[in-house]
């Protein structure tokens, strides 16, 4: 073999090794329903992975609930790479805020035309808020899409999607704000159910006292769930025009496990430590899990996050450990018998600034 040819082979081998070390990938499908929360900073991206079938040896069928980040310092290719071998069947865009949909282009790149996108409010609302408008219009036009109009309660919403055998997604509310000036109020609220276990995904749901009261009354017991993705990245407000994750809502959900993304050092200071303490110090859940770190922000305007260690089942995607910010994937593995197994694993290559593992 010539020295030049050997050099080419070594270069290619090194490139493959570099890529495998730099980027995380969705694990192969297994016998569980897996719920993954990706570390997109101030934003949301949840990946629902169906249990493997007898004919599936790969990443399996996947549904995505939101895919966006407030700051475009996250590497598009990291999220594309994470999902590149998965069969994405459905995408739920909860509402037209950039931090819930501006990563959708790289994620959907290369996926089949059978994919179906569900969204609240008119598509133009998303286009207006997206810098690369042509790309987003092209993405929406390339796939089937459905607008979920104003509804409250599963019967009113009349949208139940079979994600795979024994796994369904039911819409509980949408467009409660009338697609006006406050997109958070228009969030699609959905619940996934599998063998008696459920997970609630409220997007950035928040609103006035009147709106949240109406939501609780209209949705009723339908929002009860075992796993709760904290609304609006873990924001917490009991009063005012942007009430979020109120005590009575937490009681109505009655979850055993809680999680959110994290916008470390990005102005919004989510999640809030006050919400963490509310869940920790009261009897929302009596479960205890392995001790793990949790990073949050105080309400006193302190810019630096606070990191603690807890054995309560509440998780966040980005942590500050020894003054170093690190990104994690949160996973809830739901077994056939209904057992829920939480875990956190490092996510490599997400950010352009943060330390990589």
TrEMBL record:
Domain called Metallo-beta-lactamase: residue spans: 39-112
Gene3D superfamilies associated with the record: Ribonuclease Z/Hydroxyacylglutathione hydrolase-like
Span of the signal peptide: 1-24
InterPro entries (UniProt xref): Competence_DNA_uptake, Metallo-B-lactamas, RibonucZ/Hydroxyglut_hydro
Keywords, comma-separated and alphabetical: Signal
PANTHER family named in the record: DNA INTERNALIZATION/COMPETENCE PROTEIN COMEC/REC2, RECOMBINATION PROTEIN 2
Record protein name field: Metallo-beta-lactamase domain-containing protein
Source species of the chain: Amphimedon queenslandica
Lineage: Eukaryota, Metazoa, Porifera, Demospongiae, Heteroscleromorpha
